[in-house]
């Protein structure tokens, strides 16, 4: 027979043996199940880059807005007879004096919700009033400080002063002593030169005094807009005169330049110097009047003015860089009150509509961040005129922004996004809230109970107060709906990591660890087993004694000690497991090789002149191949179990995702298993199935290694 035919026959013989071995293996139900489980694991490992959401699963943390919910501090229900008629809410106060009550206005009167005991009080009756204004002021004549509420309807101006039954602010029962002043044809809510806490942070700097005759502090002006046959008029009053005298004559009553109903009004304090102005917009025109009635700012823009906005620092610091920001549908202008000039701050080029504007305080020039909410659910953030530093995609349309101390609450009638000032640069909000009912404008307040900022939101006949810090929802259960559009099929960990990404990322890594350790043990045990088993002598006995010493040392403690010395690296852990796990396989092979050495076919090979290497290769290796597969399958499953054990114990905190690493949190806090089973059950199932698969494969290999057993099992 020629060499070519010989090689063909040998190949056919090997294929025949391979098919026979496969039939023997596949005839075992254990082997069959183990094989199919491994096929699934291999497929998932191969496609893991396609189905994993975040390749950096150990460092990825879900957006804070997804796992932080608004933390409700309390809710109060107002009289149901006025449900859907509560049109506004406000609070007042420099320091904490005015923040004990949240005022709200219905069609029949003014109500107050006590932020300490959460009781609701019917404070005053007034029909069909405009929105409320509340603030805190000092009355030098009475030597005390009170909270005041101002509103109006078409025929009268209402001024109320809050007092408490215990004579200590915030204690006892509040009452609103009020005075109604007859006025004709009031067409808008009155406003004042004093600022409430929620509109700006300057109230801690200014003290307002009603008794302007004797005070060296700042007087309070009240402004109303009225209409008669000749047009619209802006009227300015001393609040002291309205409250304490019969002289209700205005300081000035100026006819506004256009016969267009005013749309926006704002008080520009300018440090309450002589440059303080009250600003009124009519259509595309904005006019500013000084407190003596003379005109200051006077600009006509190209389109209708939607909003007038002044950063808080511009109120109490009068500087040449101060601007009055005015937005139209497509442009934001900055108007310098010092010289009555304007500049374009932002322009949409008619592509989108501007919904709302806001900014940080602007204490040293142009605000650090200037926010422009657009109609395409985008928030543009500027750090200078026409200089956009980032676009922030919002999950909902925004129709308003409440702000205080550089923090922002973006909202529409149903949805709320809280964006702290120090998060603007990263473009992430920290909590969201959805309410199904139409609401009034949310307000910031200083909660006297917690001495921290809170946010009040009124909807229907309910007023709820939420903490600005929010409430962490991690670990989150599986969800396919988040405000940012992210999905978490297996939820999150307590730290906000995506469990799905960690779980899927563990498939290739654990398979790689198992194969690397299994092949490493195979090579070491095969070399040592064949040499020690075939050769006899001092060297062989020495290797056998060394292997026995390693084998007899308790495996887990030795593994922990060596792993701690090597350190948490994937390569180091694989080497440790390989170098400490080969003795069992080696002793198994030593026994088999010594048994084979005494067989007649080995003696025949020696007589025929075969070399030792040929005997080891052609006779020993072929006969131990099935048992090698059997041992390797056991070692692969054992390697994954060992790594998982080390990671659960915190000995091997690898920088790659593994199933054992996912279980580390369970070891440190077993309570997590009860509250977040979606976090721990998937890796437990994966580890169990992976180990069982190789155990089943090894059971199936019994049919190949020991055909006598196969006959009994079929």
What does this protein structure show overall?
The radius of gyration is 40 Å and the shape is elongated. It is 35% helix and 28% strand. It is α+β, with helices and mostly antiparallel strands. The chain has 16 helices and 34 strands. It folds into 2 domains: 29-61 and 494-713, MetI-like fold (Orthogonal Bundle), CATH 1.10.3720; 65-472, Methylamine Dehydrogenase, Chain H (7 Propeller), CATH 2.130.10. Helix 6 (499-534) runs parallel beside helix 9. The mean pLDDT is 84.
Biggest sheet overview: 4 strands, antiparallel
The whole-angstrom Rg is 40 Å
- The helix tally amounts to 16
Helix content: 25-40%
Distance between the termini: 40 Å
Could you list the spans in which at least 5 consecutive residues all have pLDDT below 50? none
CATH class of the largest domain: Mainly Beta
Strand order of the largest sheet: 1-34-33-32
- The class by helix and strand makeup works out as alpha+beta
User: Could you tell me the number of beta strands?
Assistant: 34
Name the CATH superfamily classification of the largest domain: YVTN repeat-like/Quinoprotein amine dehydrogenase
Number of domains: 2
**Overall form:** elongated
The assigned CATH architecture of the largest domain is 7 Propeller
β-strand amount: 25-35%
- CATH topology call of the largest domain: Methylamine Dehydrogenase, Chain H
